[in-house]
Amino acid sequence: MVSAYELSKLENIKRNKALLVDLGLDKPLLEPLEKVVQKAPPQKKRKAPEPSEIDEKPPAKKQQRTDFVPEKGLRRSSRNAGKVVDYKGEIIKEAPIPVAYSSGVKTTENEGPMGREDGPRLHDPKKYGHIPGIEVGTWWETRMGCSKDAVHAPPVGGISGGPQGAYSIALSGGYEDDVDLGYAFTYTGSGTSSVQLRTAPQSSDQTFENNFNRMLLRSTQNKKPVRVIRGYKLKSKYAPSEGYRYDGLYTVEKAWMEKGLNPKGYLVCKFAFKRVPEQPPLQIRAGFSPDDENEGNCDGTPNDTQLKDEDSANDMDEGESDPENLDNVDAESN
């Protein structure tokens, strides 16, 4: 017999899918699959030369030049003669691809370029739209890499935003009745439990007075684009098989409240996102099974990854001096 919880979950999913379809999906006819990159064969170890093969003759001694008289004072390069050298200028180098990948020890199915995992930030994450130099499809092994490349600054939190709405969000885990159709998805807001019991089931209604929910609500009004990353823990065929991937810009099309999947029927804030047209197509996860979608806890609580996002959100909420004034909100965690 199907439980009331399962019936409610299926009804919510059906309703959310219909809502996303009504938004109109800019979906290509053919969606690319992740390609498995074959592991490079190990190189044969080179044999050490036999003792008999080694030239036993001692190296010739270098003769010191006697016809050269060094100039007095500091040594100077002829290349820099007449140039003003800025020794205090900042030298920024791009981080190389990790040796584990470049050597073939580890392989990946992500087709996009690999982002940085270390080094200073080159751009300000507190901006709307694309980050210069970061292509759609770029991926990182960790959330810290997303932060270093300024795509999604908080290393844990799910929402980053400012006075005019959200800069970026991370999809990783989520609620059971959230629907991800790739080119549109639903997202459940923040603020489900008390500060003392952050991992407990929802204990009150969510509201748009919550700073993070208010940012997304503001995004529905001004339609500023939001950067979206998907993580490997997301139960969706559009999630990467590993790491975190930048999937481009979305707009928040709608915000509403509905009864959540919790024993006491507390309300949750919901948001519908739609992908901005004319972006590279999304990849479909290799080996994905439809049975993997919409899995989660069966007691009405969010998944572990969502709880971590809520945890970070609550941590940042505690530091707000004026939660009623959105202009003072900075949801980003550096």
Automatic annotation (TrEMBL):
Protein name per its UniProtKB record: YDG domain-containing protein
Organism the protein comes from: Gymnopilus dilepis
GO CC annotation, single: nucleus
GO biological process annotation, one example: negative regulation of gene expression via chromosomal CpG island methylation
Compositional bias annotation for Acidic residues: 312-334
Highest taxon in the source lineage: Eukaryota
Sequence ranges assigned to domain YDG in this UniProt record: 129-275
Comp. bias regions, Basic and acidic residues: 48-74, 114-127
Keyword annotations of the record: Nucleus
UniProt keyword Iron present: no
Phylogenetic lineage: Eukaryota, Fungi, Dikarya, Basidiomycota, Agaricomycotina
Compartments where located: Nucleus
GO terms of molecular function: ubiquitin protein ligase activity
Main location: nucleus
Region (Disordered): 34-80, 104-128, 282-334
